[in-house]
Specification:
Layout (H helix, E strand, L loop, with lengths): L1 E4 L3 E4 L4 E5 L13 H10 L7 E7 L7 E7 L5 E6 H7 L5
Antiparallel strand pairs: 1-2, 3-4, 4-5, 5-6
Length: 95
């Protein structure tokens, strides 16, 4: 599988480590009244989708960047690759 890195271009998936669902970017508010329940769900509740899914990938064998990869879990076809920092900024999670 090839991942088209936004900065470095096409790279073999062997250079990357799958780190889970991209929803992990949206960490719970630690000061919320129900913070314990939110963090329990955040840490342990996972979907196992069939089809399109946004995932976090870490470029361990390269520039050590984090990517959000949109991939079909059935065919492994990748439809979009973005830097995780850009996704976090767009979603209001980082400055």
């Amino acid at each position: 599988m090839m991942i088209d890195h936004p900065i470095l271009g096409p790279r073999d998936a062997g250079e990357f480590v799958y780190m889970g669902c991209a929803s992990l970017i949206n960490r719970p508010d630690w000061q919320a009244e129900d913070a314990l329940q939110q963090f329990t769900d955040y840490g342990y509740q996972r979907d196992n989708p069939s089809g399109g899914h946004r995932e976090l990938w870490f470029h361990e064998g390269g520039d050590r960047s984090w990517l959000v990869v949109t991939r079909d879990t059935v065919t492994h076809a990748i439809t979009q690759v973005e830097l995780a920092r850009d996704v976090a900024r767009r979603e209001g999670r980082s400055k």
